[in-house]
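Hi R.,

As promised on Friday, here is the backbone we talked about, encoded as structure tokens. Could you run it through your design pipeline when you get a chance and send me back a sequence?
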């Protein structure tokens, strides 16, 4: 099966993990800060706080933004469920904005329409690795005094207006799941320039307990520590951080390989009755996490099944989050975001990863061409 996305692990990665295992530090050791410093530097942010998943990182970011009971968090309908779920964890309500039909990214105008007095945070997602129109979202966040949290789970290595994603929102999340730009097995990070957010993120990551500063009680001795908030154990391990730091060295090459493969598809898929994702622009260079094509909705299932049967590991990204049974039970109704539902109905993500060969891409394209003439 040719997967829709997959990791690239080399001998350097394996040696980095091995060294860590021999170092005596499995967790809470020096590899974590080293990885955080490297990520922050790479994306041009002051601080990075690493977590044991991207989902944990989002949860912590919403906490740091002050999201709580009664608040609303504005998220796009087309995203992985975690973007909405993290609001629910804190007793807040995710509000879904519709998406742009060509990019699948959150529609700025619909987001603006859905802002209320309760809206606390604005969370656009860089769908498929393509950066959202950050200038527009920044303006919207500023106007309504919202915290702008970019869900860049898919866009590490992308750039917007010549600057890396991660340097232009109040907080940006990256995921290190194996299908994403780089991997730590499971893992995630928040990057930010804001000192206060950084402190709150670290607090939340480790049970809400602080060991070093900002005590409210008088110190009772060198062992003194205080719990200030109901945090979690969301710590990443040194083993994972060492893998991440090693992977990060190849980020540019991973993204370049993904982009080169993405540029090959339009020629291979020429004259087919499908819509391809738009190419990079001067303003937005994608990390090309996915290659999402739109096929006729009424044939999507048959095409999907035929591709899988041919050994091509296609996937669908995503069912609009509010259409999951859990969200339906909460009262969200079908039809809430028409563009998102239309986008979902015809979407298939075809294989794209750093190691994909031209031969594999040709096989994917030839197979799709053959299927489309039959179905
Ligand atoms: C992968 C992903 C997440 C969650 O990250 P995990 O590391 O899998 O927890 C959140 N949002 C989006 C858009 C993602 O693609």
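Update: got your reply. Pasting your designed sequence below so it's all in one thread:
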């Amino acid at each position: 099966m040719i997967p829709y996305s997959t990791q690239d692990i080399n001998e350097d990665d394996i040696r980095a993990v091995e060294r860590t295992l021999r170092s005596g530090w499995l967790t809470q050791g020096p590899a974590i800060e080293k990885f955080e410093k490297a990520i922050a530097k790479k994306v041009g942010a002051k601080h990075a706080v690493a977590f044991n998943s991207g989902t944990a990182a989002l949860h912590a970011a919403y906490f740091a933004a002050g999201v709580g009971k009664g608040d609303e968090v504005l998220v796009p309908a087309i995203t992985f469920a975690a973007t909405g779920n993290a609001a629910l964890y804190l007793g807040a309500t995710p509000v879904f904005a519709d998406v742009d039909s060509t990019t699948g990214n959150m529609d700025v105008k619909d987001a603006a329409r859905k802002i209320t007095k309760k809206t606390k945070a604005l969370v656009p997602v860089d769908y498929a690795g393509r950066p959202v129109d950050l200038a527009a979202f920044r303006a919207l966040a500023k106007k309504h005094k919202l915290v702008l949290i970019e869900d860049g789970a898919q866009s590490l290595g992308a750039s917007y207006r010549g600057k890396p994603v991660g340097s232009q929102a109040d907080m940006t999340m990256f995921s290190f799941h194996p299908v994403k730009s780089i991997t730590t097995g499971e893992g995630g990070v928040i990057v930010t320039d804001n000192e206060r957010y950084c402190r709150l993120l670290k607090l939340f990551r480790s049970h809400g307990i602080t060991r070093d500063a900002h005590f409210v009680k008088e110190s009772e001795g060198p062992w003194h520590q205080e719990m200030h908030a109901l945090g979690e154990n969301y710590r990443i391990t040194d083993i994972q951080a060492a893998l991440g730091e090693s992977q990060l060295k190849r980020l540019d090459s991973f993204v370049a390989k993904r982009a080169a493969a993405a540029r090959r598809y339009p020629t291979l898929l020429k004259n087919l009755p499908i819509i391809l994702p738009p190419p990079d622009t001067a303003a937005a260079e994608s990390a090309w996490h996915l290659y999402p094509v739109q096929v006729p909705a009424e044939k999507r299932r048959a095409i999907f099944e035929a591709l899988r049967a041919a050994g091509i590991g296609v996937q669908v990204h995503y069912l609009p989050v509010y259409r999951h049974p859990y969200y339906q039970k909460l009262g969200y109704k079908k039809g809430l975001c028409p563009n998102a539902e239309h986008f979902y109905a015809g979407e298939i993500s075809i294989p794209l990863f750093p190691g994909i060969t031209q031969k594999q891409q040709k096989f994917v394209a030839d197979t799709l061409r053959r299927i489309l003439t039959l179905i």
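One thing I noticed while checking it: The longest strand covers residues 47-51.

Thanks again,
M.
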